[in-house]
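Complex 377.
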Amino acid sequence: MVWLSRICYRKYGNFVDNLRLYVRGGSGGMGLPRLGGQGGKGGDVWVVAHKGFTLKTIKDKYPHKRFVAGVGSNSSVRALRGTKGEDQEVLAPSGITVTDDDGKVLGELNQEGDRVLVARGGQGGSYHSEFLPKKGQARLIRIDLKLIADLGLVGFPNAGKSSLLSALSHAKPQIASYAFTTVRPEIGKIMYNDHKQISVADLPGLIEGAHMNKGMGHQFLKHVERTKQLLFVVDVCGFQLASATPFRSAFEAVQLLTKELELYKEELLCKPAVLVVNKMDLPGAEDKLTELQKQLQNPEEFSHLLPEDMVPKSHMVFRHVIPISAVTGSGVTHLKSYLRQSLDEDASMATESLRSDRLQALRVVTNTPAWGSSTSV
Ligand SMILES: Nc1nc2c(ncn2[C@@H]2O[C@H](COP(=O)(O)OP(=O)(O)OP(=O)(O)O)[C@@H](O)[C@H]2O)c(=O)[nH]1
Ligand SMILES: [Mg+2]
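Predicted structure with guanosine-5'-triphosphate bound:
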């Protein structure tokens, strides 16, 4: 079942968790042989962790994915020592690893303000170089969001996320009938017959207002960002946090979870997602599942069920909706093989786009002039 969204127009999610960029330090300035003047050094390129930036922001803002620092100025009679070219900063989110194209780690940016030098500017021309400047360093770099697991479980408390993790893997998370049993992420591994493993992060339950730091709040949502795909888990019979809070049906739970992700970072809605409808062993579950599927097919028609400010602007695109019972194990084998297929498909798409990126980059490098002028971004 595909639930169309306004911002996710592709069949596969377009959440960006890695990015390849072409970076080049500026060339140095010319020296002045007559007076022994030294050209300015070319500017450097840095990746800097900055609040509010995502990899998608970089991709959207700089579609050419090319960052070139400024050229050092030439030595002149008025200024024998040329000034340094302007540095170029690639503003990126924190929680990333920056590597060169061979996979060598250049740096890890863990908190705001962390920075790593990715391309050095060339030296200015001087006596030692017969007054000829050097070109800046040019290379491809890769930025990866540090992932904690392939899949992240997203759901209200008590939906059965930990029960599902223990049904899928050998992990033994705490399971109980009260809310917020899970207080920190726990990683389990799903094992396949060909020894392939898929890691799943059991995450603390999300509640309404999580984006404002209610419940586990940001701490939780931060983890959602760091998985390749999302596994929404809802209780087919719905959920009520406490007697004073409203009862939410499975459909409303999906809507509210979506809203919380949207309010935290809209881009999260572009992550590939699968909806797991749990507790199918409970009485009346089949009817409730039919109702949920009807609502998911036409969410706008049912938006009146929630207060206006809780209706998401755009919807999750679920690749698949899978009913299961984590307790009896029904549907779990199907889910397990579907998850494998879904991740394998994404991996082959990523390989394909890496190949075309490399080709593209090769063209860029081949067409770069010897002392290229500064392309500012
Ligand atoms: N009948 C039934 N009960 C289930 C099923 N899956 C989980 N439960 C029960 O639901 C309750 C909550 O399960 P958990 O796995 O702890 O739920 P959770 O989503 O991890 O909850 P938090 O960690 O609090 O966010 C437990 O009492 C489970 O036994 C199911 O498929 N059927
Ligand atoms: Mg749990």
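The pocket of magnesium ion (ligand 2) is lined by residues 161-162, 173, 181-182, 202 (CB under 6 Å).
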